[in-house]
Structures are given as C-alpha cells and as structure tokens.
Amino acid sequence: MTDIWLETFLGKIGKYILAFLSRYYYFIIPVVLIYGIFLTLSSYNLKRIEKEANSEVVKQAKNIIEKNPDIGYVDLVAKIEIPWEKIIENRSFFPYISGASDLWVAGTSDFNVKKIVAYDDEKIKAILERNGINNFGVKPGTPKNLYTEYTRRITDREEEW
Q: Does residue 147 sit within a domain?
C-alpha cells in the first residue's frame, strides 16, 4: 500500500530517491553537517570583514564631513577609500567567504569581498544612514505631502491652458 502511495505522490524517480536516502543516510548526514560547518565559518568570516569595512567607511565619512561640512553625498562617497587588503589581512581567519543566504563559497580576495560588502553606492548610503550620517550638508526640512503637491501641480497646469 505504501509503495502505491509513494509512486502516486512522488512518481517512480521520487520513490527511488527516497529509497536511496533511507538506505544511505548514514553517509549523507555527516557530509551535510561538515558542509554546514564550512558555510558557517565562511559566513562568519565575511561578517567580521564587513563589520570592519563598515566601521572604516563611517570613520572616514565623519572625518571628511568634519573637514568639509557642506559636502554632498556624491563627493563624500568619492573621497572614501577603503583599504581592502589591510582589512582582509587583519580580520580574516578563514580563506573563504560566503554570504548569509548563499549555498556556495568564494575565496577571500579583494575583488570578492568588495563585490559582496560594498557592491554599489546604495549599500554605502545605507551604511552611512544606519550610523546617523544622512544629511550631507543639507538640513532636513518638513516632509511634503505628495498628494497635495501633485494635486497642486495638476490644477496649476490646467489653468495655464
């Protein structure tokens, strides 16, 4: 009866896969556990490097803003230079890195770390905003009500015709 159910719900291939797993799970579980530990160490290594890089970005941004308080965001990001080699040398304890939800690892190199940690300006902007650096020389004003703003634009445009 169970063979009929397995064949109905899983198909012939699913039934064979389930039989294989039930016969050889003693060999499969240790491999999965070892790979899980490997991924955990790789992910922890990336987090250590990322934490150091984030603190370096914040430290440099505060120094640049202190020297030039009216600097814009684009100029600020252009002046930030992260010493990737030094960070990797000081904070890496494992030769591989892995993202939080990745199932694969990459070698600990400047290119791979830079690609994951600071892959675009939005990521750097998020790092700065999380640490309270978000005005970039402009004092925040009162937020606009977008609904009334767009209504005003539409009504003004109709009167011009």
A: no
Domain that holds residue 125: 2-137
Task: Please name the amino acid found at residue 54.
Answer: N
What DSSP letter does each residue of 41-88 carry, written as one string?
Answer: HHHHHHHHHHHHHHHHHHHHHHHHHHH-TT--HHHHHHH----HHHHH
Angstrom distance (rounded) from CA 161 to CA 37 = 69
66 domain-assigned: yes
CA distances from 58 to 18, 49, 55, 81, 119 (A): 52, 14, 5, 11, 16
Sign (positive/negative) of CA torsion 31, 33, 35, 37?
negative
pLDDT tens, position by position, 24-43: 989 999 999 999 999 999 99
Q: Does residue 28 form part of some domain? A: yes
